[in-house]
Amino acid sequence: MTPDELKERISEDGVEFIYAMFVEMHGKPCAKLVPVSAIDDLLEVGAGFAGFAAGPLSQTPADPDVLAIPDPSSYTQLPWQPNVAALQCDATVEGELWPYAPRVILQRVMEKAAEQNLVLKAGVEAEYSLLHRNEDGSFRPADERDTSEQPCYDARGLTVMLDHLTTVSRHMDAMGWGNYANDHEDANGQFEQNFEYADALTTSDRLILLRLMMHTLARRQGLYATFMPKPFADKTGNGLHTHLSLWTADTDEPLFHDDEDTRDLGLSSMAYSFIGGILDHAQGLTGIVCPTVNSFKRIGVGPPDSGATWAPSYVAYGGNNRTQMIRIPEGGRLEVRVPDGAANPYLALAALLGSGLDGIARDVDPGEPNVDNLFALSLDEIQQRGITALPPTLLHAMDALVADDTLRSTLGAGRDGDYVDYFAEVKRAEFRAINDQVSSVELDTYLTLM
Ligand SMILES: [Mg+2]
Predict the structure, then answer these.
(1) Is the pLDDT of residue 19 over 90?
(2) CA of 239 relative to ligand 1 center, distance in Å
(3) Is 420 helix (H, G, I), strand (E, B) or coil?
(4) How far is the CA of 2 from the centre of ligand 1 (A)?
(5) Percent over 90 (pLDDT), the chain
(6) CA of 195 relative to ligand 1 center, distance in Å
(7) Least CB-packed of 111, 227, 290, 388 within 10 Å?
């Protein structure tokens, strides 16, 4: 979209204000509200931010402004506040794209893929919890009667939240995302609303807006929406199952499909190599796609009340089998089940793409698909099969991330060194800040024992 086309569209839509948006490491949606009378300045100069104040962007208080330059093709009128439209921006500093801005990082990896005539398309299943805050500060499901042990797909739970769910559905369609399913998920108060896949950048931009929309709509109802990976220890966590496929950049031909696949999963040899790359880099990758202390309470843990976590514990792939880290739901695409609701989609898709491209470059064979129910196998049986576990904590994942040269080169470098080192520094501090607290569980376990 050219600047003139954009201005015409803004006027047709009756939009009065623009959110000039970008995200920092955590995926926090940062915005400046810009009246459309100032659109020329916004497009030419960008919106100015004190980068240090925004969040982790490897900026100091002494640095000059981050100028966020809008990407006109990301223009989206926001149906829940239709006089406002969002423009996703690329952060620049002194005229150069800032290499610690997640959207910039993803575009650089996509440019490398484009040099090989490849485009990554991605679809994400953004599970979220809709919660009510009790007077004592604790949280319960938005619907107080949503207490059954297996609430998944319950039409009654869906019906109670019908106004909210149908509003989200209509908004998704108004934004051109193609909502195709909505359900009550496996935890009390947990929902999922699906929209069509698109190129990795578009899907990332949409996920940032989806989270913003959910927070806004929940708040209007006096509720809380959260994508936090594991809000309750005894309930299923919020995953971000991520469906991936590569396509040719010039002719938009799918490259992951092959009906002649001898393993009978409908995948091409390129898809298998891509899987092999993701499995090879799984330890470090987990640190990017499961980027919080809380993330590791969703993966690699025992079953919640509903009977299964639906989250992987081990580095393995299989067919239409939800106990695997990578599931092949049908020919032509793969589903990575590790990412969670805390994932920054730009960084997650950059890291997944970089890992997959490395698998293609090295022609990696991931071996035969695993056909077990991995939730049911004992640790001995897992070890006998030569299957490794995902990292147990954020700290382990950070050690793996900084040791992974492919992820290091994928996520790039800037003024202050490699992005993986900066990411690990921020995340190790996050781990310490939480781990240094003395929890009630520790008191219950040790106080009278010692
Ligand atoms: Mg789900």
Answers:
(1) yes
(2) 7
(3) helix
(4) 38
(5) 96
(6) 13
(7) 111
Q: Report d(CA 292, CA 240) in Å as an integer.
A: 14
- Per DSSP, helices labelled H in 251-361 are 269-280, 282-289, 345-361
Cα separation of 288 and 286, whole Å?
5
Question: What's the CA-to-centroid distance between 145 and ligand 1, angstroms?
Answer: 21
450 Cα to the center of ligand 1, angstroms: 43
Whether this prediction's pTM lies above 0.85 is answered by yes
More confident residue, 304 or 53: 53
Ion ligand 1: residues, Cβ under 5 Å: 192
Residue partners of 341: CB distance under 8 A and separation at least 6: 126, 127, 128, 226, 227, 228, 229, 237, 238, 239, 240
φ, ψ of residue 279 to 5 degrees: the values are -65, -40
Question: What is the 415 CA–ligand 1 centroid distance (Å)?
Answer: 39
Domain count, the chain: 2
Per residue in 87-101, pLDDT tens?
A: 999 999 999 999 999
| Mean predicted lDDT score pLDDT of the chain | 96
Distance 64 CA to ligand 1 centre (A): 43
Does a structural domain hold residue 205?
A: no
From 95, 118, 136, the end of a domain falls on 95
Both 82 and 123 in one domain: the answer is: no
Structural domain that includes position 356? 110-127+227-446
Find the 193 Cα to ligand 1 centroid distance in Å.
Answer: 9
Q: What is the pLDDT of residues 249-275, one digit of tens each?
A: 999 999 999 999 999 999 999 999 999
Task: Say how far apart CA 129 and CA 237 lie, in whole Å.
Answer: 9
Distance 41 CA to ligand 1 centre (A): 42
Distance 344 CA to ligand 1 centre (A): 18
Which residues are registered as beta bridge partners of 190? 129
pLDDT band at 379 (very low <50, low <70, confident <90, very high): confident
State in Å: Cα 102 to ligand 1 middle.
25
Rounded distance from Cα 35 to ligand 1 centre (Å):
38
Half-sphere exposure of 67 (CA within 13 A, CB side): 14
Q: How many angstroms does the Cα of residue 206 sit away from the middle of ligand 1?
A: 18
